[in-house]
Design a protein that fits this description.
Layout (H helix, E strand, L loop, with lengths): L1 E6 L3 H13 L2 E6 L3 H10 L1 E2 L3 E5 L4 E4 L2 H5 L4 E4 L6 H8 L8 E4 L12 H6 L6 E5 L4 H5 L4 E6 L3 H11 L4 E6 L2 H23 L3 H22 L4 H4 L2 H12 L4 H10 L4 H6 L8 H15 L4 H11 L4 H9 L7
Parallel strand pairs: 1-2, 1-6, 2-5, 6-7, 7-8, 9-10
Antiparallel strand pairs: 3-4, 8-9
Length: 330
């Protein structure tokens, strides 16, 4: 029986803990950063702030004690917001044993360094690292809806270990050795989802939405390939799959933020309405542009999204500037 410590009790972390418990065969611990949230989960058996409506199985141990959570764990499943991952891994690094696997399910890029999550982890510890990504709304995973994900690692045996431990009747896990492509697909799609929401908020129709998604995957692929990823990876679950989900699904937090921006609301007001939940695309936009500048990759949608988010540009002006760019081959 594998011992899995889920580090992060937001919607995604809770959903993964629930589906792993439903699968059986694991000793599961769910770590909450907040002791108040841990107490609430223990008392009510339901994550009311982040994933209401789903009962937490009784065989999941809930704790706010981080060293205790990781003790003797075979897999440390990191589901923290991307900007908190470095702090959490730095805290536990001195306590890790060599064979403990760190599995990142956080989709984002670190601000300032522009590092992918696996790179953040590798900069702190030599423990084996893998990533888990793909089209997956937390509510649907918790509800047991059939979902396909991809486990990526440079070591194929490590990816297969994750595949074996996480696959179930409702969760189909594929393997991939293209860690860069899988992570960049998961991070960059959030930026395009924000833009897709803007298109919806402006009531620009289905033609605009289809064009935005298609050109979005084109610029995601350009950057991923420049960073060493494989083009075919971006045509898979962590690329087109996750992009279509977050650009069209009503449960997409990034898309919802974009919709409100398109309707004319200010970012600060929108974020207050999230009540502590995270839309990763907001910070990933800046980091994506930093990477694009480093590799001299053109990312026009990301540039316009950054101008809307951080430079007070009108969404209508951003769309106009995208449409008036010089013509070129596809």
């Amino acid at each position: 029986m594998s011992r899995i410590a889920v580090l992060g009790a937001g919607a995604w972390g809770t959903a993964l803990a629930v589906t792993l418990a439903r699968r059986g065969g694991h000793d599961l611990v769910l770590w909450c950063h907040s002791s108040a949230l841990a107490e609430q989960l223990q008392e009510h058996g339901e994550n009311l702030p982040y994933l209401p409506g789903f009962t937490l199985p009784a065989d999941i141990t809930v704790t706010s004690d981080l060293p205790g959570a990781i003790f003797e764990a075979d897999i440390l499943l990191c589901v923290t917001p991307s900007q908190h991952l470095r702090g959490v891994v730095s805290h536990i690094a001195p306590l890790l044993t060599r064979n403990q696997i760190i599995l990142s399910a956080s989709k984002g890029l670190e601000e300032g360094s522009f590092l992918r999550m696996s790179q953040v982890i590798a900069s702190i510890t030599d423990n084996p690292v893998a990533v888990l990504s793909g089209p997956s709304f937390a509510q649907e995973v918790a509800a047991g809806c059939p979902t396909a994900l991809v486990a990526a690692a440079h070591d194929s045996l490590l990816a297969q270990t994750i595949q074996q431990d996480f696959s179930s009747s409702t969760l189909r896990v594929y393997t991939n050795d293209d860690v860069a492509g899988v992570e960049l697909g998961g991070a960059l799609k959030n930026v395009i989802a924000l833009a897709s929401g803007v298109v919806h908020g402006l009531n620009l129709g289905h033609n605009s939405a289809a064009a935005l998604i298609t050109r979005g995957i084109a610029e995601m692929t350009r950057l991923a390939v420049a960073c060493g990823g494989h083009r075919q990876t971006l045509a898979g679950l962590s690329g087109i799959g996750d992009l279509v989900l977050t650009c069209t699904g009503t449960l997409s937090r990034n898309r919802s933020v974009g919709i409100e921006l398109g309707r004319g609301r200010k970012l600060d007001d929108i974020l207050q309405g999230l009540h502590g939940k995270v839309a990763e695309g907001i910070r990933s936009t800046t980091a994506a542009l930093g990477l694009a500048a480093r590799y001299e990759v053109e990312m026009p949608i990301t540039e316009q999204m950054d101008a809307i988010l951080h430079h007070n540009k009108s969404p209508k002006d951003a769309i106009r500037d995208l449409m008036s760019r010089p013509g070129r081959d596809e």
